[in-house]
């Protein structure tokens, strides 16, 4: 009889960890006897009704001693909550230096899976048994679609939680400077997050919006993946100068899966999914130099927009192998 696989991960639709958890749990349930471990902090977060029903149908507290365990290591969970035969932790971290408490927590796992080679290399150098398991993309949702409304505009997309490491300040400065030069450049943003309270989000927006032309900026409040695809289809290029990513930047991957090219910081976890064949990439680590590079890269893309479709096609092809099915199989391999 196959051992049960208990999973302690968030599952939902409205932030990165929950999207990851929902897809990992769903795909693993097709190839293993999966049980969802209830967690009051995860279970209070919003979910679609179909997700609520699915999670309820497989919810069970670990019992006995013949089972394996998979747990995410996030702000809600550090150390191992239950101990099975093989215990895997899944982690994404942005800082190169980890605090002592987290390092001690990680010792309780048999294997640490990370979302990027950047994370894995750091942990391996510290003596941990670490492997890389990339996130997947639902390419049936994130797929190319034609522009309908902004054919005469050059639209730049910026997505991700509004915070320093996501570098929206760089986005605003670089795009704002070019908006003053080119009146047809539009910035479309998707910076909302369920953890950003309204007053915090407004304060963060105030920091960046002074750089931007209000008439050339569209700030959306997108709440679903289906909806975000419609907005992506109206854009020409994505801009991801993120200072640090523990994973591969799921929003950026989903954007490229829509057949779009990107301007991106070729560092940290993002490096795993970027290539000069289909993206405009920065180099170096001095921020002032990077900002100058980004401005030049945006202008190159603006002046050569006839090349963007070909690059976007290559970007989608590069994303197709990153499936949630593949992610699930790689997790199962750790238990065999």
- Which fold name is given in CATH as the topology of the largest domain? Rossmann fold
Q: Per CATH, which architecture of the largest domain? A: 3-Layer(aba) Sandwich
Beta content comes to 15-25%
Largest sheet: 6 strands, parallel
The helicity comes to: 25-40%
Q: Describe the strand arrangement of the main beta sheet, using strand numbers.
A: 2-1-3-4-5-6
> If you compute it from the alpha carbons, what radius of gyration comes out, rounded to the nearest whole angstrom?
20 Å
* DSSP, total strands: 12
Query: Kindly, what is the distance between the CA atoms of the first and last residues, rounded to a whole number of angstroms?
Result: 14 Å
- Anisotropy-based shape: globular
CATH first level of the largest domain: which class? Alpha Beta
Q: How many structural domains?
A: 2
Comma- or semicolon-separated keywords:
336 residues; alpha/beta; Rossmann fold; 2 domains; 6-stranded parallel sheet
């Amino acid at each position: 009889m196959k051992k049960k696989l208990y999973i302690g991960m968030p599952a939902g639709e409205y932030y990165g960890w929950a999207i990851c958890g929902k897809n990992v749990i769903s795909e693993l349930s097709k190839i293993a006897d999966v049980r969802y471990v209830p967690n009051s902090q995860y279970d209070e977060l919003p979910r679609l009704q179909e997700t609520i029903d699915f999670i309820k149908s497989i919810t069970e507290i670990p019992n006995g001693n013949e089972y394996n365990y998979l747990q995410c290591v996030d702000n809600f969970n550090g150390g191992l909550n239950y101990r099975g035969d093989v215990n895997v932790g899944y982690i994404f971290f942005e800082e190169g230096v980890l605090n002592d408490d987290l390092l001690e927590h990680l010792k309780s796992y048999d294997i640490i899976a990370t979302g990027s080679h950047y994370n894995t290399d750091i942990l391996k150098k510290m003596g941990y048994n670490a492997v890389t398991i990339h996130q997947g993309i639902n390419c049936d949702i994130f797929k190319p679609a034609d522009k309908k409304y902004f054919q005469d505009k050059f639209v730049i997309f910026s997505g991700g939680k509004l915070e320093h490491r996501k570098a929206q300040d760089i986005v605003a400065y670089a795009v704002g400077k070019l908006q003053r030069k080119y009146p047809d450049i539009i910035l479309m943003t998707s910076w909302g997050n369920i953890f950003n309270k309204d007053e915090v989000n407004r304060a963060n927006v105030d920091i960046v919006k002074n750089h931007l032309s209000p008439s050339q900026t569209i700030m959306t409040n997108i709440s679903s993946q289906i909806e975000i695809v419609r907005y992506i289809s109206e854009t020409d290029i994505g801009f991801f100068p993120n200072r640090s990513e523990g994973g591969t930047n799921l929003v950026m991957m989903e954007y490229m899966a829509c057949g779009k090219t990107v301007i991106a910081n070729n560092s940290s976890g993002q490096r795993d999914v970027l290539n000069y064949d289909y993206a405009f990439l920065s180099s170096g680590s001095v921020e002032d130099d990077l900002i100058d590079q980004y401005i030049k890269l945006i202008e190159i893309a603006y002046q050569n927009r006839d090349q963007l479709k070909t690059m976007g096609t290559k970007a989608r092809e590069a994303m197709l192998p990153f499936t949630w099915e593949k992610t699930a199989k790689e997790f199962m391999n750790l238990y065999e």
